[in-house]
Design goal:
With about 160 residues, the chain is α+β, with helices and mostly antiparallel strands. About 20% of the residues lie in helices and about 30% in strands. The chain contains two helices and eight strands. Strands 1-8-7-6 form a four-stranded antiparallel sheet, with no helix packed on it. Strands 2-3-4-5 form a four-stranded antiparallel sheet, with no helix packed on it. Strand 3 and strand 4 form a beta hairpin. The longest helix has 20 residues. About 15% of the residues are buried.
């Protein structure tokens, strides 16, 4: 019998240890809930003041091009135009090329191509407003200012 009492005591100790290790409690739960350090009226206002600020969901309007769709305004290499598809821009002498072609306008970007007087073909594809600046062919820089679907505002600058 003495041997049996030892086993019972070990079993009780093992169960009590397992309960304590699992986060259990051997005391009866308290009838009152734990008190909050912040009163209820204060915590409600604190929760509303920590809400995420609302931001405007309105998209920026598509900018108007300074020269509209007037391709002739670009002849001297200084203009800003709206393009909605392939166009050829005729340029005056002194820019290192006689014309510049915009070969495509799509959500993926604007594609440019030109040939120098020596016959070298230059192209820049997938140009976008967020690419980090203008691209340059000879003495003409160009930059996509805005792009939306199949329309783009492109700025040209004589360098």
């Amino acid at each position: 019998m003495r041997h049996m009492m030892g086993r019972t005591a070990l079993t009780v100790l093992a169960v009590a240890g397992a309960t304590a290790a699992c986060g259990g409690s051997t005391t009866a739960p308290s009838a009152t809930p734990p008190s909050s350090s912040v009163p209820a009226s204060t915590s409600a206002s604190a929760a509303s003041s920590s809400a995420v600020p609302k931001t405007s969901t309105a998209l920026k309007p598509f900018p108007a091009a300074a020269d509209g769709t007037n391709l002739r305004a670009c002849a001297d290499g200084d203009c800003e135009i709206l393009v909605t598809g392939p166009v050829t821009i005729r340029l005056t002498k002194g820019l290192g090329m006689s014309s510049l072609d915009i070969t495509a306008v799509s959500p993926a970007g604007v594609d440019f191509q030109s040939s120098s007087p020596s016959g070298m073909v230059m192209s820049a594809t997938g140009q976008t407003p967020n690419q980090g600046g203008a691209s340059t062919f000879n003495k003409l820089s160009f930059e996509v200012v805005a792009l939306e679907g199949s329309k783009a505002v492109v700025r040209f600058t004589h360098t």
